[in-house]
Amino acid sequence: MIGFLFALLAVFTLSPNKASVYDIGNENWHLQSEAYMTVKDGKKLSSRKFDDYDWMNISFPSTVVAAFVEAGECAEPVAGEEDFLAIPHHLVRGDFWYRCEFAVPAQAIKEHTFLNLSGVNGEAQVWLNGQFVGNVPDSLHRARFDVTGIVKGKNALAIKVKADSDKAGLCSEVYFSFTGNVSLGEPFVVTTLNLPDTTEARIKVGAEVTNHAKSRKRVVLSGKYGWIPFEVTRYLNPGQSEVFSTTLEMENPRLWWTNALGEQHLYDVEMKLYAGHDESDKTFFRSAVREVAFSGDSLFVNGVYAPLRGTCAPGGLDRFDRVSSKELKSIARYCKDLNFNVFATTEEDARRLSSYADEFGFVLLDSNSAPALDFDYGELSVSREPASDFYACKRANESVHVQYVDGKVEVVNRTLHDLNDVKVGAQWFDVSGRGVSEQVAVINVKSGSVSQAFAFEKPCEGVGYLELAIYSGEDLLSENFHIEGSVPEDYPKATLRVGGEVNSTPDGWSITYLIENLGDVPALMLCARVDDPDGEAVLPVFWSDNYISLLPGEKKVLTAEVDKADCPHIPQVSITGLNL
User: Fold this and answer.
1) What residues form DSSP beta bridges with 95?
2) Is 166 exposed, middle or buried, given 0-12, 13-18 or 19+ CB atoms closer than 10 A?
3) How far apart (Å, rounded) are the C-alpha atoms in residues 355 and 350?
4) Ramachandran region of residue 296, left (φ > 0), alpha (ψ -120 to 50) or beta?
5) Are 100 and 26 in contact (CB under 8 A)?
6) 59: burial class by Cβ within 10 Å (0-12, 13-18, 19+)?
7) Domain 393-484: which CATH class?
8) Which residues contact residue 441 at a Cβ distance below 8 angstroms, ignoring those fewer than 6 apart?
9) What's residue 5's pLDDT?
10) Chain centroid offset of residue 145 CA
11) For the chain, domain boundaries
């Protein structure tokens, strides 16, 4: 295995027990440069008596530069331009204080309380309620501090960050976790297959366990991986930490596959920690059984070769780490829509994306050493509509795809199964949409291969349209539409009939939209757009397809999903096109 695969071969989706976690949230956070402060003592700054009225209110989490950009104190830097040099020097070199006052419900507090910093870029000092609780020694660190006895009903937190770059600051959530006398560290899972055999898996599961009590404790870690129970028992002395782990064997596991190869099956995992007979800590997460490796620039998933398809964000998802968890999930969803199997980015972004990568079927790579990937990461922006290139890429990356290359009709089979007796059809149309040539063939296509169906040269001069389709019995596996030549500017207008329905779901809107070409000419490059009731574009929207073309008499149903957080009221759909 080469070095650009992040060491996350058994990545899981961690979902801590909500009853034992209290998120400080993103309200009431303030920021100030130490250069402008008269009081610089963390003890005083973390007292509720301190008045930070002249500090800057910020959105949280936020890097230092991002906070000053949002406040209008610094221009938005543009990648690759001299604007990066225009960032004031004191924003990338110096000490900055983050401060927040908050309340913690009394019923949430247990025997032991921990303050968790999910992402700190730059050295940091942490103070809570007038007490120094610890240092974060270096950048991009997560940190956990035992603040038992320090946290109260009402609290003040002050964190000093030493800026040494334009990405310095607190770039992820801050929260408290509560446990009994023994606690779980981050759980881990490592899965191994005896390739090429995939009928058995060895699963090593465990976590670091710490005894915070003043006496020796009998500690039991029990849980389930899927349907398989496990239990590890040991004795821990006061203050002792030790890794509890065990190895399980699973027969006929449901494997996790990257997009195109198969489904992303995830097993539920439960861990509970007991001190004697008392439950002290617990967590739940989801885990994939898989084995991923690289050889050269080749990706192998469970022993199966998968050509790399993906994108690279070499400087990270956002230079100043302003991407929210909701936006991260949307980006990952776009990756699934595009059938990507890899995403290359920075280590910190990979950590934040890891659970979504499992859910949406791709592997994370280190952008510093990843191979070249063709797709422009900018096309995944959740702040603008995906362009036609996005949907062209989505079609080209289908699990089963019919395509036209150098005068030949081909079928690409990226699935794990051979395609037998599939019917491939192709038809040329002239500029008016009149059929001029047609050909059909029945072929077999082996798994992981490309097979030529037939040669099919364009029979007409000027503009022509090529419609392709592949069927297995009555089931449409793939369709494609090519425009050959430049469509004239005075091309006749198309006539459409459109309509559909919008249904409410628990978290969003489900849209079904019918587009039918009633005219005598092709309707070209039809783009459906979702607006709110005020006519403003709603983003992001996840369309089944878009930028489609319809020949006379053809119709197609598109579906879309919208989050109610992005559109609280019933959305509207409109259509634009090349000749509307």
Assistant:
1) 162
2) buried
3) 9
4) left
5) no
6) middle
7) mainly beta
8) 423, 424, 453, 454
9) 54
10) 28
11) 25-172, 308-383, 393-484, 496-576
Domain boundaries 496-576, corresponding CATH code: 2.60.40.10
Residue for token digits 């009994």?
180
Backbone φ/ψ region at 196: left (φ over 0), alpha (ψ -120 to 50), beta: alpha
Tokens 């628990």 -> residue: 506
At 23 the pLDDT is 87
Same fold, 25-172 and 393-484: no
The Cα–Cα gap between 159 and 55 comes to: 14
Helix (H) or strand (E) holding 292: strand 292-295
Q: What is the pLDDT of residue 9?
A: 35
Mean pLDDT by 10 residues, the chain (580 residues): 42 46 88 94 96 93 90 72 59 90 84 91 95 86 90 95 88 91 93 96 97 96 98 97 98 97 96 94 94 87 94 84 87 95 89 90 90 81 87 95 96 96 96 94 96 93 93 96 91 95 95 97 96 94 97 96 95 95
Q: Classify the C-alpha dihedral 44-47-50-55 as positive or negative.
A: positive
Distance (Å, rounded) from C-alpha 199 to C-alpha 312? 34
> Six-digit token pair at 314?
């070499």
- β-pairing, 342-345 with 363-366? parallel
CATH number for the domain running over 25-172: 2.60.120.260
Count of C-beta atoms within a 10 Å radius of residue 524: 21
